[in-house]
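Weekly structure sync - notes
Attendees: PM, LS, DV (DV joined late)
Agenda: review two folding runs queued last week.

Item 1: First target. Sequence and structure tokens pasted below for the record.
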Amino acid sequence: MSIEIQLNAVFKVGNAIYNASMSVPAATPTKDSPFIFDVTSKPATDGDDKEASVLTVAVGGSGFVYVAVAPPQDLITAAAGDIVQSLNVVVAEGEYDKAKKTFKPAAAIEG
């Protein structure tokens, strides 16, 4: 028996809304069907629906791992003051297509 998991949660923290979603495929994760965990944020004010990616984790098996972290500016300011103006960290093994939520084949990366 195989079980696929989809999880979505919405949290309001201060003046921001955070959407967390997780997708675990029924089979072993592959480059075409990876395990995905996303967290996005947007201001809680009406009319402002600009969403920003806070955390993305995708695992498509051996050789296919993608982690991107970009904390919201209000959290950066609260932690470090006005010194850090922006922070974005990406660690990847394999090339991840954020729009398709899949990894590109190894041949496409090399060629």
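Item 2: Second target, run right after the first with the same settings.
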Amino acid sequence: MGTTATGTFRTDGLEEQPFYGGRGARLSRTRLVRTFHGEIVGTSEANLIMTSAGRLEAPAHSGLERFQGAVNGRTGTFVLQHAMIGPFGEQPRTELRIVPDTGTGELVGIRGSAFINGDDTGGELTFVLDYELD
């Protein structure tokens, strides 16, 4: 059985570089810098490919995020893989997986998944990490 750590985060920095704005969808490379509080304490940097589809604003993104800090008091780093699709009229939900063998320090061997509900348009969001450590 795994362990759950819950925290909140705030996006402190966002840099967006659009690379397609034509018919059907807008695509951008986006860099996010975040600060976490709670049972998950630290900072992260995410590099994502994001899209939205015209007036329906059906967002989606994928990419990688490197976390540095502590999870339930154990310090180190690890990488998360993002996958999110938010259909029009529904609450977006980002699902993340810890990339195998990316844990360092006291987080060596960490594996598991996480989720974020809501969009990242301001304020703090809840981050729930379900994980196991060797």
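Discussion on item 2: The longest strand covers residues 3-20.
Action: LS to circulate a short write-up before next sync.
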